[in-house]
Amino acid sequence: MKLLDGKALSIQIKEEIKAEVEAIKASGGKVPHLAAVLVGEDPASQSYVRSKVRSCETCGFESTLIRRPSDISESELLEIVHGLNRDHAIDGFIVQLPLPGHIDESKINLAIDHRKDVDGFHPVNVGRMAQGLDSYLPATPFGILQMIKRNEIETSGKRCVVLGRSNIVGTPISILLSRKAYPGNCTVTLTHSRTADIKAELLRADIIIAAIGIPHFVKGSMVKEGAVVIDVGINRVDDSSRPRGYRLVGDVDFDEVAPKCSYITPVPGGVGPMTVTSLLMNTLRAARNEVYPD
Ligand code: GUN
């Protein structure tokens, strides 16, 4: 079993990004500038956004954090998005999800200029991704692809089972791994809450992507010998022995599953850090106008 160390890989990629930013600065080019909009006080969202801003600093990016209370109106949030769309200093921006219930997430998503949509959630970017055209890839799937690629894991012809059909992870990673590319060329099964027999599907999988948001959902008895297991889950479970009163666990029961795997990602330290790094890669591409040249 080989551990897919997302933390180490993300440090390495951030070093590469930092070197590129230094080269941009030396040649008088535009330093990448990411903006993040954070609504409300959700602890997990606050922690993710903090990590995004900190990583910008590590890589020499400029960053702007816009914080608003959870009772912000939809129209006020739309105004912020329109302002960021117009602001030439900002190369790319994200609106951290989930948003409070009174705000229509898809309305906000549609208002974001797709050329600044470094989350890759806008339908223009999703559509381009589905057709194999260049686009901003959503950060978590992009991070998973990087891990597969940099560890030279074979994907062609493999059976891949994705757990969960979210717009952020499950649906895009299933599209990406079925594309005619490397990583890709998989036979992908996208499973969800209405799938008849998830265990039977998982037992056929050469590659499992678990993005279901249920702690320790995937047990040892559900995994084939030699499978590659990518755990996207970051679930907080109560743990009074920890200073914070909780610990983070994945969607995979690591202790049971790891001995059966060829490769597995730990939680924490697996997909999570790669997600942040991928957002920086998208922002660097945005600053260079690579995806949508003027
Ligand atoms: N919430 C959970 N993951 C993400 C992400 O990748 N982007 C945004 N904007 N919100 C999220």
Protein described:
With 294 residues, the protein is α/β, with parallel strands linked by helices. It has 2 domains: 28-114, 3-Layer(aba) Sandwich (Rossmann fold); 139-272, 3-Layer(aba) Sandwich (Rossmann fold). Helices cover 39% and strands 17% of the residues. It is built from 10 helices and 11 strands. The strands form 3 sheets. A 6-stranded parallel β-sheet has the order 1-11-8-7-5-6. Strands 3-2-4 form a 3-stranded parallel β-sheet, with helices on one face. α1 (6-26) packs parallel to α10 (271-287) and α6 (139-150) crosses α10 (271-287). The longest helix is centred in the first third of the chain and has 21 residues, at 6-26. The structure holds guanine. Guanine binds next to β4 and α6.
Element layout with pairings:
Layout: E1 2-3, H1 6-26, E2 33-39, H2 43-59, E3 62-68, H3 74-86, E4 92-95, H4 105-111, H5 123-130, H6 139-150, E5 159-163, H7 170-178, E6 187-191, H8 198-203, E7 207-210, E8 227-231, E9 235-238, E10 246-249, H9 254-257, E11 261-264, H10 271-287
Parallel strand pairs: 1-11, 2-3, 2-4, 5-6, 5-7, 7-8, 8-11
Antiparallel strand pairs: 9-10
Helix pairs in contact: 1-10, 2-10, 6-7, 6-10
The protein binds guanine.
